[in-house]
Design brief:
Blueprint (H helix, E strand, L loop, with lengths): L1 H11 L1 H6 L4 H26 L7 H28 L2 E2 L3 E2 L21 H19 L9 H24 L3 H4 L8 H19 L15 H20 L2
Length: about 240
């Protein structure tokens, strides 16, 4: 609903935005892209949910929806500021935007979209990245532990790395370019997923009990949502 309201406002206030160096078409496109990335999040849940045993399907799907809620709050409270706040030693962003303070409809520096639109689009990246890791620990983690891990990982891993690459940190200062999350999303999620899988270990009964995917069509449906949403993930970047 928030994305839809912002999209409508961007179209209705096009001339006014243009005066402030904001392009209404760019604003609308980035918001549409954010909505497409949002579609990918339940897609991840369905993709993993179809691959686990039937008894764990619901909990696996819920992981993605829970991440959508808790990471959205974390991003608003401090995540966006840590990733895109004033650079501190090339390592982390400051607390300039704590609680989205100062993030509004003014043009984002160097872009033709409002800071609020940029924040929303980047929030979708933060959420989908945390969701990708869930496949490494499904069927092997308590829900409470999952919540703590997700919040800690977003704050201690994703936000700093996003700042290094996209927020003016040390990698950006060295000339590193990451147009659609190759470093910030895929490397961080992949390496972290491997580490989590190695630490937690295999499922109980692995190698002795049958553990076939319980619903391949659900997995295919999730893959289709991911496929469709990736047009916004890459093109919006």
């Amino acid at each position: 609903m928030l994305l839809l309201c912002l999209l409508i406002c961007s179209l209705l206030t096009g001339p006014a935005l243009a005066q402030d160096a904001i392009n209404a078409a760019d604003n609308a496109w980035v918001l549409i892209s954010a909505a497409l990335v949002l579609i990918m999040i339940p897609g991840v849940g369905l993709f993993y949910g179809g691959m686990v045993r039937k008894k764990n399907a619901i909990s696996t799907i819920i992981f993605s929806f829970a991440i959508m809620g808790i990471i959205s709050l974390q991003w608003i409270l401090c995540g966006y500021s840590l990733a895109f706040g004033h650079d501190i030693g090339g390592l982390i962003g400051g607390l300039d935007y704590l609680g989205l303070s100062g993030v509004g409809m003014e043009a984002k520096e160097g872009l033709t979209i409002p800071s609020l639109t940029f924040m929303i689009f980047q929030a979708m990246f933060a959420i989908i990245t945390v969701s990708l890791i869930t496949g490494s620990y499904v069927e092997r983690i308590k829900f409470s532990s999952f919540l703590v891990f997700s919040l800690a990982w977003a704050t201690l891993v994703y936000d700093p790395v996003a700042h290094w690459v996209w927020g003016g940190g040390w990698l950006a200062q060295m000339g590193a370019l990451d147009f659609a999350g190759g470093i910030v999303v895929h490397i961080t999620a992949g390496v972290s997923a491997l580490a989590v899988a190695l630490v937690i270990g295999a499922r109980r009964g692995f190698g002795t009990d049958p553990m076939e995917p319980h619903n391949i069509p659900t997995t295919v449906m999730g893959a289709a949502l991911l496929w469709f949403g990736w047009f916004g993930f890459n093109a919006g970047s």
